[in-house]
Amino acid sequence: MTVALVGAGPGDPGLMTLRGAALLGAAEVVLYDRLLDRALLDLVPDDAELIDVGKGPGQSGRQADINELLVTLGRSGRRVVRLKGGDPFVFGRGGEEAEALRKAGIDVEVVPGVTSAVAAPGAAGIPVTHRTVSTSFTVVTGHAGDPDLPGVNWGALARTGGTLVILMGMGRRAEIVQELLAAGRPIDEPVAVVRWGTTADQEVVRTTLAGLPDVGLAAPATIVIGPVAALDVTGVVKVDGRVADGPD
Ligand SMILES: C[S@@+](CC[C@H](N)C(=O)[O-])C[C@H]1O[C@@H](n2cnc3c(N)ncnc32)[C@H](O)[C@@H]1O
């Protein structure tokens, strides 16, 4: 008994791994999420069962039901694929699903996916690290999360430096800006917001910390904060195949 937790990638179906595609092609049951491109489901055999377990914002209470369903299906002996957006273990609750399966004695195969935390900025020409500009990046949730757990320490993150990549942050962007400014990040620090990155619907807004509260893009969007957010390395003129104004 094995259930595969498969990362679907950030949006463009072409960015899913070959292993993920092979598992979908052999699946008997597929449980999938809300943000996924339906083209991926075309890889699934016609007689397979497709189960939409898509969670909207604020519906995280259903996670227990999903875990239970995964265990039931895993025990049935059918070839089960749990298809999750981006990477299953980056803010995807894949860890909880894997734990529930293991607790029930069901083996888990994890197939990593291309995470939107890196792919959405990349699709906008923003490298999350860039020599001489940023030597680190931190991926953090902007969602308030569980009130019983410690929240994100924005002050500490601000002082750490490097690029900040915020997922699920648009709903709290004004508060996040206040916390970062209070911790000393400059008000004119570059910011980019990438919505539906890697897809045909991709939208990119470039601004600063001062302007972030006024950016009107809805989810799913990734916020990038730091000097790299001002770059568009795929948009500049290339000389001999190299970025003309990039570092050597
Ligand atoms: C619940 S998290 C899941 C992240 C996913 N596991 C990953 O690795 O990309 C969903 C959030 O990821 C970000 N996101 C997912 N797909 C995106 C895309 N195509 N473009 C921009 N941001 C995206 C948004 O911040 C969205 O609210």
What's the topology here?
Layout: E1 2-7, H1 18-25, E2 29-32, E3 49-52, H2 63-75, E4 80-84, H3 94-103, E5 107-111, H4 116-123, E6 137-141, H5 154-160, E7 163-167, H6 173-182, E8 190-195, E9 203-208, E10 221-225, E11 238-239, E12 242-243
Parallel strand pairs: 1-4, 1-5, 2-3, 2-4, 6-7
Antiparallel strand pairs: 7-10, 8-9, 8-10, 11-12
Helix pairs in contact: 2-3, 5-6
Bound molecules: S-adenosylmethionine.
Compressed to H and E, one letter per element, the order equals EHEEHEHEHEHEHEEEEE
Assigned CATH architecture of the largest domain: 2-Layer Sandwich
**Tell me, what is the CATH class of the largest domain?**
Alpha Beta
Radius of gyration using CA atoms only:
20 Å
Question: What key phrases describe this protein's structure?
Answer:
248 residues, alpha/beta, Cobalt-precorrin-4 Transmethylase, domain 1, Methyltransferase, Cobalt-precorrin-4 Transmethylase, Domain 2, 2 domains, five-stranded parallel β-sheet, five-stranded mixed β-sheet, 6 helices, globular, disordered C terminus, binds S-adenosylmethionine
What does this structure look like?
This protein has 248 residues and is of the alpha/beta class. The protein has 2 domains: 2-111, Tetrapyrrole methylase, N-terminal domain (Cobalt-precorrin-4 Transmethylase, domain 1), CATH 3.40.1010; 116-230, Methyltransferase, Cobalt-precorrin-4 Transmethylase, Domain 2, CATH 3.30.950. The chain is 23% helix and 22% strand. It has 6 helices and 12 strands. It is globular and about 55 Å long. S-adenosylmethionine binds at residues 10-11, 35, 85-87, 90-92, 115-117, 120, 167-168, 194-199, 219-222.
